[in-house]
Amino acid sequence: MDVIERINTRRSSRSFTDKEVDQDTIHQLITLGTKAATGSYGQPWAFIVIKDKSEMHSLSQEIKKYLLENIEDFPYFKQYENWLKNEKFDVFYGAPCVIAIYGKTSSHWCTYDCSLAAGNIMLAAKEFGLGTCWIGFAECIFNTWKFKIKHNVPDYYKLVSTLIVGYPDEKPQKPPKRKPATIFYEK
């Protein structure tokens, strides 16, 4: 599959098989992520990989509880309030793997660099027959000092992206038609 086809057919996956993603594949995805462009060649990224199902379940419950208790602080999640109240809703959608991407805050470009790394991982995952989805819900917990201490993330790193990765248990729908890009041309 070429990169143009990969870009045109990539979809977020929210349903996964039970098949594990092996360590070598995860390592390859992260390595491909680090091939992304980086401002001043800073390479400010760091990664956490979580594959423990019980930890992922606990984190999902903690995230839902926190967001519901503080929903006024997260107006962009208000539309998902019923999901968060649903005991069966898993913020990680049953994926077998979570990859969290952190950026070193001493780099002015860490958010951009780490977002580009996330994009590389999402596109590369298709090559391995994997699906991915960026999980915005996770930010409220994955960027806390408590979580960072547990996972040995120094305080001078901030969370940029949380991706779920796994073998999709669904056939991706055709991508919706996008609005034309707004382009401002020089006069």
UniProtKB/TrEMBL annotation:
Provide the protein name. FMN reductase
- Name the lineage: Bacteria, Bacillati, Bacillota, Clostridia, Eubacteriales
Matching entries from InterPro entries are given as: Nitroreductase, Nitroreductase-like, Nitroreductase/BluB
Keywords for this protein: Oxidoreductase
Alphabetized Pfam families for the sequence: Nitroreductase (PF00881)
Task: Identify the residues that the record assigns to the Nitroreductase domain, covering every copy.
Answer: 7-167
Q: What is its EC number?
A: 1.5.1.39
UniProt lists the gene as nfrA2_1
Molecular function via GO: FMN reductase [NAD(P)H] activity
Q: Does the keyword Oxidoreductase apply?
A: yes
Q: What range does the record give for the signal peptide?
A: none
